[in-house]
């Protein structure tokens, strides 16, 4: 039997990078999916590839949109078992130069959206002994130049995960993953904070103990473990997946 057979899952940030890899692997493992993202073209292509999936375009920083995601899961599939939160932006710029609007949008996208979707999903997840998985970052623990909003939002995401794990046990498991340098468009965008982006990415790759960048499928495999019954005694945990870079 597939690990997510008959499970209904919302995946945000599903149209690219880690979120897309997660959606694809969850689908292979039998999940029915409500996919979230801003890019309607990419979302439409994704649902053509994945059976038992629907795409709902929109902005995760809006409370009503998150309510719609949950309502869609219930309408289309009759229940909700898992939410997997991957939407994120960088908000590059130091504290002095960063605009108020970019700070607010980064916090809204990376942190407040988790609160919004969890708020509407939790009553349904409680009925299913469901799971919440938050895609955070090693930026919750390790700081990088010109990433103040990103680091703050990811640290907040880990703290929120731990609080919800306490609040909603034993009916809901809540965990986070903290990726290091993964070869996605977001990594290359992040490198723009440095004088030589290519050198910055190469340096990050060399700094990992395993001497390679992570791939989106690496993250997807950990996500699958944490939302499946294979991790049924794990909650309130932030799992680092970084090729060992925090140990260097």
In words, what does this structure look like?
The structure is a single chain. With 248 residues, the protein is an alpha/beta fold. The protein has a single domain, classed as 3-Layer(aba) Sandwich (Rossmann fold), CATH 3.40.50.720. Helices cover 47% and strands 14% of the residues. Helix 2 links the parallel strand 2 and strand 3. It is globular, with a radius of gyration of 17 Å.
CATH architecture: 3-Layer(aba) Sandwich
- How many helices in DSSP terms? 8
Mind telling me the CATH class?
Answer: Alpha Beta
Hey, roughly how much beta strand do the residues contain?
A: 5-15%
Number of domains: 1
End-to-end gap: 40 Å
Mean pLDDT level: 98
Bin the helical content: 40-55%
The CATH homology group name? NAD(P)-binding Rossmann-like Domain
Structural class: alpha/beta
* Series of H and E elements: EHEHEHEHEHEHHHE
The main pleated sheet reads as: 7 strands, parallel
Overview features:
248 residues; seven-stranded parallel β-sheet; alpha/beta; Rossmann fold; Sc_DH/Rdtase_CS; 7 strands
Task: Give a brief rundown of this model.
Helix content is 47%, strand content 14%. It is built from 8 helices and 7 strands, in the order βαβαβαβαβαβαααβ.
Strand and helix layout:
Blueprint: E1 8-11, H1 17-28, E2 32-37, H2 40-49, E3 53-57, H3 63-77, E4 82-85, H4 100-128, E5 131-135, H5 148-168, E6 173-179, H6 185-191, H7 197-207, H8 216-227, E7 238-241
Parallel strand pairs: 1-2, 1-4, 2-3, 4-5, 5-6, 6-7
Helix pairs in contact: 1-8, 3-4, 4-5, 6-7
Family: Belongs to the short-chain dehydrogenases/reductases (SDR) family.
Pfam family, one: adh_short_C2
Protein name: SDR family oxidoreductase
